[in-house]
UniProtKB/TrEMBL annotation:
Domain N-acetyltransferase: 149-288
Domain of life: Bacteria
One example GO MF annotation: acyltransferase activity, transferring groups other than amino-acyl groups
Name of the protein this chain belongs to: Acetyltransferase
SUPFAM superfamilies noted in UniProt: Acyl-CoA N-acyltransferases (Nat)
Keyword Acyltransferase among record annotations: no
Protein's organism: Luteipulveratus mongoliensis
Matches recorded under InterPro entries: Acyl_CoA_acyltransferase, GNAT_dom
Keywords: Transferase
Amino acid sequence: MAIVLSKPTVDELNEAVLALREWQHDGAPVQLHPGDLGWYWRFGAETTAAAVRIWSRDQRILAVGLLDGPGLVRLAIAPEAEHDEDLATQMAADVSRPERGVLPEGSICVEARFGAAFQARLVGDGWARDEPWTPLRRDLTAPVEDCGLRIEVVEPEQAHLQTAVHQASFGSPTFTDERWHAMASGVPYADALSLLAYDGHDTPVATATVWSAGPDKPGLLEPVGVHPDYRGHGYGKAMSIAAASALRDMSSSSALVCTPSSNVGAVATYASAGFEQLPDVRDLCRSA
């Protein structure tokens, strides 16, 4: 059977989300998560569908890609396709040739943390390793300690509070109230929660959104931010603990997060919140 590359319709996005949920397993590399699609959904369902690519054989999805920024595709590959040479050959050609409609001309990168055959094919074709990222994981089989702050789940009428903290945290005005509501309308958000942490003066100081992949599967923190006016007080650690606790309440088996290794402060914050640092991972890139 031939492998087919397709771009889903909005109605077909649910199939990609379900496949990503199925492929999440503890002990496997941290690859594209349904929460990554959920966070991207802030741009709207149509834009999300336009940014997704699906590889399938005989109508079974084998890989899902998200075009997450200029020249970057983030991938997840089905566990049974780890060593599928036909899939590796097809995907390598698809990401390398602009006419295939995945990546553009110029310098391009692939986030592929799983799929040994596909990784080997890119390396063999001259793709090089990029800057390291650090994945971290917290096991959720045991109860999570109290974070020490008041935590509230963000309801639609409180979206402006979360977006304000997020905008300040990341120095960017792009996560607007409109985009919060677009995110919350997406299929993955049915298994997600937005959280706000408040200090002793009832001021919102930190935020996180957590994404479940279903019971007994790893959940994702994306994104986590602390308002710059309130940094240095342990709120990042507290927010990360609260996020892990929320995922445990949602029956997730573990909590995952990934950050650039160069962001040593973030790595240290997650480690202080009980997250285990996993081996660094690197994208594969090809210069123009």
